[in-house]
Amino acid sequence: MMFQLTLTNLAAMLAFSPAVLGFTTPCIYQGYTCGYTMIATYGYNNTELTTAVNKTSIIPPLADTQLLQVLYRCVDTNGTIAGNSLCIAGCISMNSTTLDDQCAL
């Protein structure tokens, strides 16, 4: 009985624990950043980029290489991201903390 109670408590704790995040530095709140910059500069991983794209109904499911050409929006100060748009002609990094990245036209 005690063992079952311990397992139940452990399961409840895990259910409410935050997910392990791959990034080392959260993105800049309200900023727009290319996928390859999200990985190289902020330490996000393909799983986090895929999750952000899949939550966005206007972007279809993408291959890993295509995730790098998506413009992501940082939606809060905790580093949560959302896929904003797939840059078909390529994503341009502005290499700045004050300027947003953008899609090539």
What is the topology?
Layout: H1 2-15, E1 32-34, H2 35-40, H3 46-54, H4 64-67, E2 70-74, E3 81-86, E4 91-92, E5 102-103
Antiparallel strand pairs: 1-2, 2-3, 4-5
Description:
Keywords: Signal. It is a single chain. With 105 residues, this protein is α+β, with helices and mostly antiparallel strands. The chain has one domain. Helices cover 31% and strands 17% of the residues. A hairpin with a 6-residue loop joins strand 2 and strand 3.
List keywords for this structure.
105 residues, 3-stranded antiparallel sheet, 5 strands, 31% helix, disordered N terminus
DSSP strand count: 5
Question: Major sheet: size, sense and barrel closure?
Answer: 3 strands, antiparallel
- Mean pLDDT score: 82
List the domain count as a whole number: 1
* Number of contiguous helices: 4
Kindly name the structural category. Answer: alpha+beta
Strand order of the largest sheet: 1-2-3
Considering DSSP H and I runs of 4 or more, what fraction of the residues is helical? Answer: 25-40%
What general form does the structure show? globular
**Separation of termini?**
65 Å
Order of helices and strands: HEHHHEEEE
* Beta-strand proportion: 15-25%
Radius of gyration: 17 Å
Low-pLDDT regions = 1-20
